[in-house]
């Protein structure tokens, strides 16, 4: 188990994992340009793709993390790794390519994501916008950074003053409260990648994100968003279960108040 007893020790882990993620991102971008992708669908869903690079990236990240802690436990997107049975102790989350459909069809708007939690609390998150070569990293204790630039806490804007991000699939199927959420906002966007959506929140170009997210979709973004004063909650106001999929609203305090009022009306 890693020693995370001081901010300096957490920063050392941040620096090491940041280097690994950036190296892997550069390699992924190069391979995307020159490598013939082996693509398949998960469970027959033509929108839920997996490639050989997803699997290879996951293998590399797990191997690197195990070099820090041979007893590391994981929650990963791709099959083949022992899943943590609880959030007690330290748990690593790995999403080797987030936005695989974008990666395969458009070669844009995809990310590599890693997170470290201890006793259910986010310690560090890493989101690399691979095409742009940008790394968001850190957490509450260390501060949140875009590359080497420390980011400021977000402004507490309401829905009518900001752009929001939503799940396109749930918006078009009419699942509540996606349409009302999008209609109340100044504007809404659908990006097809949780990681890229989180980068919009972290840079302040959007102030809320509503979607059903798997643990590996949420973990890194939650660590970073909470470090910038966003609230990360289920629609009923409870905290997400990091071992299950959750319909989560990541948003300012004001937007959470508005959504809570909408639910009661």
Automatic annotation (TrEMBL):
<dbReference type="InterPro" id="IPR000760">
    <property type="entry name" value="Inositol_monophosphatase-like"/>
</dbReference>
<dbReference type="Pfam" id="PF00459">
    <property type="entry name" value="Inositol_P"/>
</dbReference>
<protein>
    <submittedName>
        <fullName>Inositol monophosphatase family protein</fullName>
    </submittedName>
</protein>
